[in-house]
Design goal:
It is rod-shaped and about 130 Å long. The chain has helices at residues 4-25, 33-52, 66-75, 78-97, 108-192, 197-217. The chain is mainly alpha-helical. α1 runs antiparallel to α2 (33-52) and α5 (108-192) packs antiparallel against α6. The chain has 6 helices and no strands.
């Protein structure tokens, strides 16, 4: 026999908070670190509330208080990990002193068997939670690393393109000056040697080639 109604009330409160948190994640503004601390603190306090009515620190599920610490250590800053650890530590210390004792079975062997079963179920829950969330966090980190690498590669490619464009612009500027000089002198040479048909033809061809070079440079 355990106080079912208070436990259901705690679970219901946590379910409502989970729905609010899910709605919050659909909003466009980014999640801040203080929000993550608040979420973890509420989870820890509700878990402590549930453990209070079910034996406190004697309940094998008390080790679930380590899960928020592990998750925050994998995803948040060191200062946040200290805050989460302090919250879990205070909750555990309180449960060692203040709690509703679990009713023991008449036979000690049965009580021990129940404790072993609870420890086994707790181990399975912790393994599943940590495997699921840590793998998701690792996937997010790998995706972020790929995105950073792609941005770095794009920056290097853009830098190379900019360097080539700068060099091309400099070369075009350097070549444009002598071409302009030739384009100015060739018509004068054609007028000066208009009597020489062969030279005039060659100068006209040369003038056309200069114009073509100017077009290519542009």
């Amino acid at each position: 026999p355990i106080p079912v109604l208070p436990l259901l009330a705690g679970i219901g409160l946590l379910a409502v908070f989970a729905m609010v948190a899910a709605w919050r994640l659909t909003q466009p503004w980014p999640v801040q670190e203080w929000e993550a601390i608040g979420h973890i603190a509420i989870d820890t306090l509700v878990l402590g509330y549930l453990l209070y009515f079910t034996g406190g620190a004697n309940n094998p599920f008390v080790t679930l208080l380590l899960v928020p610490i592990a998750l925050s250590a994998a995803a948040l800053s060191g200062r946040t990990v200290l805050v989460v650890s302090a919250c879990a530590g205070v909750t555990y210390a309180t449960l060692t002193q203040v709690h509703v004792p679990l009713p023991l079975a008449a036979e000690p062997a049965r009580s021990f068997r129940l404790h072993v079963i609870g420890t086994s179920v707790n181990f399975a829950i912790m393994a599943l939670l940590l495997a699921f969330f840590i793998s998701r966090l690792a996937g997010v980190l790998r995706r972020q690393q790929r995105e950073v690498q792609q941005v770095r590669e794009r920056a290097l490619r853009d830098e190379g393109i900019l360097a080539i464009a700068t060099q091309a612009a400099g070369a075009a500027h350097e070549l444009n000056t002598p071409l302009s000089t030739m384009r100015t002198l060739l018509p004068e040479l054609r007028r000066e040697y208009a009597s020489d048909a062969t030279l005039t033809e060659d100068l006209a061809l040369l003038e056309g080639q200069v114009d073509r070079c100017r077009t290519i440079l542009r």
